[in-house]
Amino acid sequence: MKVLMINVVCGIRSTGRICTDLATALENQGHEVKIAYGREVVPEQYQKYAIRIGSDRDVKLHATWSRMYDACGWGSISATKIFIDWIKEFDPDIIHLHNIHGYYINVEILFSFLKTCGKRIIWTLHDCWAFTGHCCYFSAVECEKWREQCRNCVQIHSYPKSLIDRSRMNYLKKKKLFQTVGKMYLVTPSEWLSELVKDSFLREYAVRVIPNGIDTEIFCPTNSYFKKTNKIDDKKMLLGVASVWEKRKGFDDFLELRRLLPDEFIIVLVGLTHQQINELPKGIVGIEHTESIKELVDIYSAADIFINLSVEETMGLTTVEAMSCGTPSIVYNCTALPEVVDEISGIVVSPHDLEGVVGAIYELMEKRRDKLDPRAKAMNYRKQNRYEEYLMFYDEVMRA
After folding, report:
1. Cβ pair 90, 2 in contact under 8 A
2. CA 71 to each of CA 122, 155, 192, 199: distance values in angstroms, whole numbers, following the listed order
3. Which residues have CB under 8 Å from 279's CB, separation 6+?
4. Phi/psi at 60 (nearest 5 deg)?
5. Do 8 and 24 touch, CB atoms closer than 8 A?
6. What is the pLDDT of residues 199-246, one digit of tens each?
7. Percent of the chain with pLDDT over 90
């Protein structure tokens, strides 16, 4: 079987690592795999899979076009046409879409090809962009327009940023395009996102829930020297990790949480920009984004509690990684996070209830630690099991 995956990145960040992990699982079973990607660097060990769509110049032009005309997904015309010619030569049995936004591919050209190519199409949705007129997430602003008709977008200045609002037109164009592929099957990493899809214009497609997986042999408790290296070994360490820190990811809530906690606690945030680190208050240690799994495992293992104050999570992969390293978690009771935390792995609190977060911290530190087994919960997300689900799903799709 020949499989082509399409994603914005390859081998880095959450979606890029999901693609390469799945590619490795497929290759181990004798299948041929390529990953078409749009931007950034591919780690050397995954370059055997990688096919670049366009160039850095194409990405910049697409991003500029999107910024001016709210046109994310409508640029990269020449690059996409060249890529379609390559697909015809490669002749895959399955085309597996992942994140197709990110200024690297023209969705109109892509889907015009997909609806006539006769291939099996799988689309793993990692966010909500596929069924909105502009945004990737809408929970934080409590927007419901996507259910019927996007218009007058309140997030036009959020990714993918634009100077004008064409959310209504984008919504109608996506609805027309994405409903035309006959043999297309959708996958989501959580029940929460699955339910949203069933309420969207994609409701006619079958949806399979396959959570993202992690390597529980790599993400495991270690003898960490992180606290000692950073001279915080006399503190109780609270950890937050994100690829981009902004309000919806809980950055503002962490700043307020710091104010509510005594000095015996230290907050460590991973994934901050240099500017954010320079502006942190006393009592918060900032670390820039890292692609080093070893470094992340060391940090996860050092933490006393992992805290995810995001109000928009399609699964909560960092929470699962932390739990696999033996660290209990506190999460907000919204979007997909309650699906990954239970009574043996942590505590769920109401969104923005920071007094509740403080209470949960003390409960985990003083009363419940001996009754917790976060790693046991994380074992439900072993990547070997998750990718076996994908491989079985591929077989189902090929037989359909």
Report:
1. yes
2. 24, 14, 28, 24
3. none
4. -65, -40
5. no
6. 999 999 999 999 999 999 999 999 999 999 999 999 999 999 998 999
7. 94
Instruction: Give CB contacts under 8 A, 24+ apart, made by 281-287.
Output: 281/255, 283/258, 284/254, 284/255, 284/258, 285/230, 285/232
Q: Specify the 3-state DSSP secondary structure of 181.
A: coil
Q: Does residue 99 contact residue 7 with C-beta atoms inside 8 Å?
A: yes
In 127-186, which ranges are continuous DSSP H helix? 167-178
Task: Give me the pLDDT at residue 14, please.
Answer: 87
Which domains does the chain show, CATH number per domain? 2-213+383-399 (3.40.50.2000), 226-380 (3.40.50.2000)
Do residues 98 and 15 touch, judged by C-beta distance below 8 A?
A: yes
pLDDT confidence tier of residue 292, bands split at 50, 70 and 90 = confident
Nearest Cα residue to 129 out of 150, 94, 101, 97 = 101
Which amino acid is present at 323?
A: M
Interhelix angle 317-324/293-302, nearest 10 degrees? 70
In Å, what is the CA distance from 332 to each residue of 137, 304, 329, 353, 375? 16, 18, 10, 8, 20
Does an H or E element contain 245, and which? none
Distance in angstroms (rounded) separating the CA atoms of residues 255 and 309:
11
Report pTM: 0.93
What span, in angstroms and rounded, lies between the C-alpha atoms of 300 and 284? 16
Residues 62, 104: contact at Cβ < 8 Å? yes
- Which letter does DSSP use for residue 41 in this model? P
Distance (Å, whole) CA 132 – CA 118: 27
DSSP E strands in the chain: the ranges are 2-7, 32-37, 50-52, 94-97, 120-124, 184-188, 207-209, 236-241, 265-272, 284-288, 305-308, 329-332, 346-349
Residues contacting residue 85 through CB under 8 Å, at least 6 positions apart:
none
Which residues lie across from 364 on neighbouring strands? none
Q: For residue 368, what pLDDT is reported? A: 62
Question: Locate tokens 């920071």: which residue?
Answer: 354
> First vs last Cα of the chain: how many Å apart?
15
